[in-house]
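Hi C.,

You asked whether I'd gotten around to modeling the 142-residue construct. I have! Everything is below, sequence then structure, no commentary in between.
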Amino acid sequence: MTDTETETFETIRYTADVVALTPGGDVLLIERGWAPHEGAWALPGGHCDVGETSRTAAARELAEETGVHVAADDLRQIGVFDQPGRDPRGRYVTVAYAAIVPADTPIVAGDDARNARWWPLNQLPKHLAFDHAEILRAATAS
């Protein structure tokens, strides 16, 4: 780097999301209770805490937002989603995981979720927050 060049660093936030599915093909979504995308449906997820792996964060966020408890080791990684602009608050990189849970698993909206409910994969809301439709497609691809 020369004296006339300036190096710019981008702040990147690290998150985890969960695609919780029943064997019959329902997916668990939360209604966001805060901006951005307040009122939109989204996958459960959120920020990784200091010293926490994305897998552990995914299990924690799923429990906090929906009351569904899954062991972190039972989560299957779907992929990393890091497209610039995927979140209007800035640069967010998420690691997405999938979990299969029994169809009769009770749910309770909590933490940042206004509501939580099971949705049939063939009757999803028209718009999901962020790039969660893309994550859901990756999780359910054959």
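If it helps when you're writing up: The mean pLDDT is 94.

Thanks,
B.
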